[in-house]
Design brief:
two-stranded antiparallel sheet; 8-stranded antiparallel β-sheet; 6 helices; alpha+beta; single chain; T-fold
Length: 247
Amino acid sequence: MRQTRLIMGMPITIEIVGAVDDATHREAFARFEEVDGRFSPYRAGSELSRINGREIAPDKASADMREVLRLAEETRAETDGYFDIRLPDGTLDPSGIVKGWAILKAARLIAAKDIRDFFVDAGGDVQASGRNAKGEPWSVGIRSPFHPEEIVKVVYPKGAGVATSGSYVRGQHIYDPHAPDRAIADIVSLTVIGPDVLAADRFATAAFAMGKAGIGFIERMPGLEGYVIGADRMATMTSGFSRYTAP
């Protein structure tokens, strides 16, 4: 059973193979709704907005918020500051980690019901488990940033997580914290495969902020593989990426 809903400003698709109560879909989508209500920087009453408005101190925030802030700080340290949720104006925007975190939470909710075969896709970032309804491995298409209707590479996650960062849909929304006024112009798309979608998402954001050097960072990170498309339309992949290009 496949269902899609628009939450967090993006389409979210959950497909569960086999006979399953619709309640599982409802619970998973409700989890995304809860995350949106808590972490949205656009909702005046969200917990994040209240933190940015100094109504709530970060150390007094909810357990979910503290977990995300802790993960963000760990990622900042692991990436030499290229992942930083603190904006130039001093406010916090953890969007670069919340999507992957929410997908992983939903996936774990589904798996906890002894469901082995499922697929969670939020805005193109994916956590998959098992096989699809045809009994085949799940596959994910990497779209061309120049012709979005064209798939330039198909990958098979094999239980891993897949996340893509880029400037071709939302424009220059990712910036280099070390040079916030400089546009990232040498690459347009960077896909990361990691042990889970949270790892893939947070490191894809950081690596994209590094520009062309980001693929080298992914190459050096244990457990990660990447595929970058440059503004010159040339693609570069890490040494182990090909493991995911065949079922």
